Amino acid sequence: MSDKINSILAERGRQYGDYSEKCEIVMSIRRILPTVHLPDYMRVSIEEIIKKLSRACVGDYTHKDNFDDIAGYATLVSKTLQEIEKCPSQ
Question: The domain containing residue 72 runs over which residues?
Answer without folding.
Answer: 3-86
